[in-house]
Design a protein that fits this description.
By secondary structure, the protein is mainly α. The chain is built from 10 helices and no strands.
């Protein structure tokens, strides 16, 4: 028992301390992203069971491999919050609130969103590739899979769990999640299981890149945004100067024409 206790403290002690301190100090204000995500899932769950609600939710948040790519990309952000019709919604609510909440505290709000959306998008694109290559390939799917609803927060949840474990050095937890998801994909090969594996691999790449580069890429993107703003301002100023010059030239030309007309009349 003592050994198990020491192992649990070594695995989850730092994580528990960080989360407890933040929640004790700010309560629900510590996890606004997790709270909003949980309410969105509850909202879509209620709406899609109302008369005509499923059609509305399908039009704005349901992704399928049979849809055009641009439509899938537009719907992907909301598809994360659309729960499966055949699964109890309370499971999705609990997973999202707990895992998103811990991620928001440990990883930060921005990185939590990056991981959740990137890994969900990776799974969505993998489904399209799998349908395109067909069932004769190892990672291919039958064509009927193209019409299966590809929604829900599960890929984001497992991806965030791995990133949290990586950040807190909870290697046993991260390894357990990875083994369970790979085992699920091997024992029950289906779209959801393989998408979870793709999401986990994407999450590992993100976690490693953040560990290696730190805030390098955010600073690069900030510099690009600043340069774009400066270029836009310069372009606007140049356009404004050109417009002013054109107006001045036109005014002077009209003045000359008026003067010439007056001279002829005289």
């Amino acid at each position: 028992m003592a050994i198990a206790k020491r192992a649990a403290v070594a695995e989850w002690g730092p994580l528990f301390g960080i989360v407890r301190e933040r929640v004790a100090r700010k309560k629900f204000a510590a996890v606004p992203l997790a709270t909003a995500a949980t309410f969105l899932i509850l909202f879509f769950s209620v709406v899609q069971h109302l008369p005509g609600g499923e059609r509305l939710v399908t039009r704005i948040g349901v992704v399928k491999a049979s849809l055009p790519l641009d439509v899938s990309l537009l719907r992907t952000p909301l598809s994360l919050y659309v729960p499966a019709l055949d699964l109890p919604v309370w499971g999705a609510l609990a997973q999202v609130f707990v895992v998103f909440g811990i991620a928001e505290i440990v990883l930060g709000r921005r990185l939590t969103l990056v991981v959740a959306y990137s890994c969900t998008l990776a799974g969505t694109l993998f489904a399209r590739v799998g349908v395109a290559i067909g069932p004769e390939h190892v990672f291919g799917f039958p064509h009927w899979v193209a019409h299966v609803r590809d929604t829900g927060p599960s890929a984001a949840v497992v991806a965030l769990a791995v990133c949290i474990a990586f950040r807190c050095r909870a290697w046993v937890t991260g390894g357990t999640v990875l083994v369970l998801m790979v085992g699920e994909a091997v024992v029950l090969p289906n779209l959801a299981g393989l998408e979870h594996v793709v999401a986990l691999l994407t999450a590992v790449l993100i976690a490693v890149s953040v560990e290696v580069f730190g805030d390098f890429w955010p600073r690069v993107l900030g510099g690009v945004a600043a340069a774009t703003s400066v270029a836009t301002a310069s372009s606007f100023a140049s356009s404004l100067a050109a417009s002013s010059l054109a107006v001045e030239v036109t005014r002077r030309a009209e003045g000359r024409v008026t003067a010439s007309a007056g001279a002829v009349t005289s």
